[in-house]
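Technical note accompanying the year-one report. For the benefit of new consortium partners, we illustrate the data format agreed upon in the data management plan: each record pairs a sequence with a structure-token string. No post-processing was applied to the example shown here.
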Amino acid sequence: MSDGREKRTRLMKRGLQVVFTIAWLPIVWLFLSAVAGRALAAIVPVTWVVQLFLASASLLLIFVAFRALSSLAEKIFNTD
């Protein structure tokens, strides 16, 4: 019974990561486009390369934010 509960917990943690990423990706992407898009476009004239860089940077920022939030939650809710 405990094994089923652990599997469900792992599935929910992964599911929450996916939902978090899907929800925040457009927001972070638009923010980075507004902040750094014009400067990147001046350096790199190919639009799809700029957007690829911005999308990659957005995913990286979301990953770092999720790890930081997970670390913070572990420190707050640690019951050991």
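Partners are asked to follow this layout when depositing records. The longest helix spans residues 2-43.
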